[in-house]
Amino acid sequence: MANSTTEYTVRVQAEDFDVLAETEILTKGRKDVGAIVTFTGLCRDEGGTLEALELEHYPGMAEAQISKFAQQAVDRWPITGLTIIHRFGKIPPGENIVLVIATSPHRRAAFEAADFLMDFLKTQAPFWKKEHLKDASEGTWVEAKAADDADAARWIEEKAK
Amino acid sequence: MKIRYFAWLRERTGTSEETIELPENVKTTGELMSWLAARDEGYAFAFEQPETIRIAVDQEHVEEDHVLTGTEEVAFFPPMTGG
């Protein structure tokens, strides 16, 4: 079922993105899309204490890693379109950080592909978050969570079954 | 060989990238970490817990037993927190 020749878009950029415009690119003129799953990750306010999140990335490797997982997603699920955008730089609360859009003839594949990609963006793509608080001069690096690693690992276990 | 540092490794070493001449007795990524840690206090602080540090060789994830022959770029960074 999976069509590994499906094209995908991967962008790592400082600029914001437009979810509706990006979604339209994947659906315009097509009649084979039955499901669109869009996931947008936003910078959360943390109770009003956060000034901004600073996202650092490894240029080149970030795009390559995301593309590797995008290819795995189109190999694994019957995806008709895939767009992944990850921002870097200083992002204030309320603004977009990351976008994953997966389209498919059926909902399950679109949900699962988007979920899979977010798990790997969190744990395998070279991005690091630093929290700048309103009342602190020096920011602190966000520590990786074991729960995120466990989320990513379940896709490998499931595949091995 | 180019060495790159990201996030708190960059802050602790005070360097985002540098070019080094690999000593003859340094064969693996793990040995490179030990050699870098011995340079000064900042590097020692950056590499004080080498087991928590992630390594990429020519932009591919590797472990600390990776042999450095033919390597152009090594990067050290903390566990990733993107998304």
UniProtKB/TrEMBL annotation, chain A:
InterPro entries: MoaE_sf, Mopterin_biosynth_MoaE. Coiled coil: none annotated. It catalyses: 2 [molybdopterin-synthase sulfur-carrier protein]-C-terminal-Gly-aminoethanethioate + cyclic pyranopterin phosphate + H2O = molybdopterin + 2 [molybdopterin-synthase sulfur-carrier protein]-C-terminal Gly-Gly + 2 H(+). Gene3D superfamilies: Molybdopterin biosynthesis MoaE subunit. Keywords: Molybdenum cofactor biosynthesis. SUPFAM superfamilies: Molybdopterin synthase subunit MoaE. Converts molybdopterin precursor Z into molybdopterin. This requires the incorporation of two sulfur atoms into precursor Z to generate a dithiolene group. The sulfur is provided by MoaD. Belongs to the MoaE family. This is Molybdopterin synthase catalytic subunit. It comes from Pseudovibrio brasiliensis. The lineage of its organism: Bacteria, Pseudomonadati, Pseudomonadota, Alphaproteobacteria, Hyphomicrobiales.
From TrEMBL, chain B:
It comes from the Bacteria. Pfam families: ThiS. Gene3D superfamilies: 3.10.20.30. InterPro entries: Beta-grasp_dom_sf, MOCS2A, Mopterin_synth/thiamin_S_b, ThiS/MoaD-like. Keywords: Nucleotide-binding. Belongs to the MoaD family. This is Molybdopterin synthase sulfur carrier subunit. It comes from Pseudovibrio brasiliensis.
